[in-house]
Amino acid sequence: MKNVKFLARIFFCVLCVAALVLAAVVLSAGSSNPSNLPGTPAADDPYWDQTAGPRGGVVIGFLRCSGGTVFALTECGGIFRSTDHGANWIHCPLASVNPDVTCAVVTPDGHIFVGTYGHGVYRSRDNGDTWTQVHGGAAVVDLNVQALAVNSEGWIYLFKDTGVFWSGDDGATWVKIRGPILSSRPLIKAAVVNSLDHLFVGFWPTNGVYRSTNGGRDWTAVNTGLTATWILSMAVDAHDRLFAGSDAIFRSVNNGASWSKVMSFPADVTFGPQVLSLAVTPAGHLFAGTFMAGVYRSTNRGATWALANTGLSDLWVSGVGSDDGGYVFAGTNGGPCLYRSKTTTINWKPANRGLVNSYVTDLAFNSSGRLFAGTSYYSRDAAHPYGSGMFCSTDEGAHWLTRGLAGKNVRCIAINASGHIFVGTENDGIMRSTNLGLTWTAVNSGLSIPLYITSLAINASGHLFAGVPYTGVYRSTDNGASWTLVVSGLSDYYVWDLIVAPGGHLFVTTNEGVFRSTDSGSTWVYVGLDDRGAYSLVAKTGGVIFAGASSSGVFYSGDDGETWSNRGLRHRWIHSMAVNSAGHVFAADFSGEPDEGGVFQSVNNGVTWKNISSGLTTGNVSSLAVSPSGYLFAGTFGGGVFRSRAKANYREKE
User: How large is the average pLDDT for residues 341-345?
Assistant: First the structure.
């Protein structure tokens, strides 16, 4: 018995020693690699995580696939997939940074091809889980793909203004074939294939419809009966009835030999009517998405059409589509950006859960850490801005709430010490909210038309300043109730950005350069950067000012704007800048190309810069803000809002 107790004691001691050794090893490992501590990303981790919103954006079209799957094509955010009739959407990234999507088709064997703007074609053989860029011998990798079509054999046709490309081996190789011979190079806005494998393409802004009956080798204009020869959309139904959309809808029942007008917009329509998209459901119903007239539907093979806008609050419908489960979808330019309805009884409801494609123009935090995001949308196909208003997050992006101004094109945000929010818009002037965005009031007394506000700032006295193109700078000393023009000494009135430096001096960027005011805007003096494209501004204590330019990088002044020197990032459009509590400077590049833009950080006043763009899915970064807790937030065009994985000052060594 004594021997048993003795052995038990030895075994217990061995276990204790082993536990101590193991604990020491774990602690040693942790202390040798502090970057892996919770909340601090490892060196090779992405810098950014996408937040949950704001939802919305621009949906330009849909692709119906078998098995109940439908894809939504967005203008700047790539494509999204739904397998539950649009109740939920997940992002299917084409690449680490999303190129602009223009079109998509699915082959008879279920392979999906997506055309992009400037980056050729991507293919997926697994329902969108993974993608491969396919360019083959024709080097279509750099092409701006205007339209795609696929025939019954799985042959893929790629259209652009300089010709037609063909692939018969699932995109492995591409051959340039003869396209329509035209004196100009109009855009090909739509392409369809009928059951005879005849190809039809629609041109814009002229030339109408062309047809090929031999795989694209020869083409013939088929425009008899078309009263408008600028074609924006096309569709073909199961009985080879063709439909073409322009300022009306035209139908052909004889393979394009002749066309008849089957839908006209009302005569009292004041805007330029356009049929932007056409789609045929599995049941044979037709839907048309229009510019500012919503959705039209036909249930009798296109013979007659009627408005179908019940529940649809956004009437700029860029894309329409359907799935094989009895649902139809409408993609809008702004607002929720995606609606769905049963095809039998039209009643549209927003259906954008998981679809984060918003265009965020500005970000601002209030003193309690609420994040406000302003949004704005533009389409490639129209010059009219159409916004989606304001959004708010109380948990640093985990959840987002709508905060009014639906349909407004928000340009800038400022929040005063009382928590009152001021929003500058394009065409609607300045809006003010005194209750965290629940309600808004226009405060434009004294402002002149156009009511286009590019920048807002507030000084320590609570005075507000607004930058307005063509008219200069306005000041309000009564919380926005009235505004006075303050432009004495300001020789250029086209104001891009406006800030109040820590010392109280005001700075503005204009087409002519940078101006400074030391008397609350009463007078201005020019301080440099003539013809450098100065666009954005940020300031630090001690008279340090940074100016971001539209084409020549970042400029630095250490003496309150008296002298300037270039601090790198040349040939980049620095759209927004921010400074954190550690004095680090951040610059957002809005290059317009997905693989060139991003965010850069400097810890030494711009002497050197570090690219911190990993994790961003778009290169169009439009706004930056630092939260009270120290995290960096980036607003993007096409990807909503991103948040740094750790506080923005954790990488202090360069």
Answer: 95
